[in-house]
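Long-time lurker, first post. I've been practising inverse folding by hand and with some scripts of my own, and I keep getting stuck on stretches where the structure tokens seem ambiguous. Below is the full token string for one chain I'm working on. Before anyone asks, I'm not after the true native sequence, just a reasonable design that respects the backbone. If someone could post their per-position residues I'd love to compare against what I wrote down in my notebook.
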């Protein structure tokens, strides 16, 4: 365990950070602390109303902060492309948004919703922003995963989960995909000689709106850690000078060991190729020769 706190973060003046799903959950305190330390922050979210409210909350705590809303629906690749086309600079991308434990649904493009939103949407976003990230010295991509990745399994013959769908298994699969992507992005960036750092984080069991408990929702605040505490691994991964590419930062800022499957280069390359085909987004600058 480290004594690091958000107060330890360096001055981020001149940096531009994009945080997906920054309107609620751990995304909001992540965006808040980045703004507090001088970064220009884009609150990327589906809802203009909720995104705008998050911007006002941040401005309420950090008067004069450079913070703005950007419309982004990760379950719609057209929205991802439109959002990315409006980005002229980015030093830090926090792939934070996520959904989980829902009945089987599909994205606008026909992908299983948890996989399509949590993984494919962020895969496409990162790829579309890659030229801007590579132009920023020491840029970082932080992708929020979970220890639930350990129960995930990727059946490439059943990616839409039309057979054997389960809320928990589908969520675990999406979080496994997040880790596979994180590690493969780091390998490719390193091989290309890029200064880009790709890191994953796990917030721990956190009181957010990713899980709906109906009339028992209040119990989340009783038995789970706060969103601010859950945001600390992401903030540490995003700003600590001691972070190395490919690390997986967990609760209490411990460096975790991903599952054997998450560390598989073979599975990662296959997922990368499939994700490229499904989204139509190619990371040409760091493609393997």
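-- Answer (accepted) --
I ran through it position by position. Result:
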């Amino acid at each position: 365990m480290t004594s690091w706190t958000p107060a330890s973060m360096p001055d981020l003046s001149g940096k531009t950070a994009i945080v997906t799903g920054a309107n609620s959950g751990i995304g909001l305190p992540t965006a808040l602390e980045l703004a507090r330390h001088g970064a220009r922050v884009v609150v990327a979210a589906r809802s203009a109303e909720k995104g705008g409210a998050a911007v006002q909350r941040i401005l309420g705590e950090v008067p004069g902060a450079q913070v703005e809303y950007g419309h982004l629906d990760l379950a719609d690749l057209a929205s991802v492309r439109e959002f990315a086309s409006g980005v002229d600079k980015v030093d830090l991308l926090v792939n934070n948004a996520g959904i989980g434990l829902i009945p089987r649904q599909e994205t606008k493009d026909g992908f299983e919703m948890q996989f399509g939103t949590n993984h494919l949407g962020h895969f496409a976003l990162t790829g579309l922003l890659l030229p801007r990230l590579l132009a920023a010295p020491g840029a970082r991509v932080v992708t929020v995963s979970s220890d639930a990745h350990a129960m995930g399994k990727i059946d490439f013959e059943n990616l839409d989960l039309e057979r054997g769908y389960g809320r928990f298994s589908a969520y675990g699969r999406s979080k496994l995909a997040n880790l596979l992507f994180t590690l493969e992005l780091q390998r490719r960036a390193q091989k290309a000689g890029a200064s880009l750092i790709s890191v994953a984080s796990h917030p721990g069991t956190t009181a957010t709106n990713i899980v709906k408990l109906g009339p028992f929702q209040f119990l989340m605040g009783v038995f789970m850690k706060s969103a601010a505490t859950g945001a600390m691994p992401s903030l540490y991964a995003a700003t600590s000078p001691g972070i190395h590419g490919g690390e997986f930062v967990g609760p209490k800022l411990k460096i975790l060991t991903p599952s054997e499957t998450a560390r598989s280069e073979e599975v990662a390359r296959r997922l990368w190729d499939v994700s490229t085909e499904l989204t139509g987004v190619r990371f040409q600058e760091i493609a393997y020769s």
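A couple of notes from the structure itself: The first strand starts at residue 16 and ends at 20. The chain has one domain: 6-281. Happy to go over any region you disagree with.
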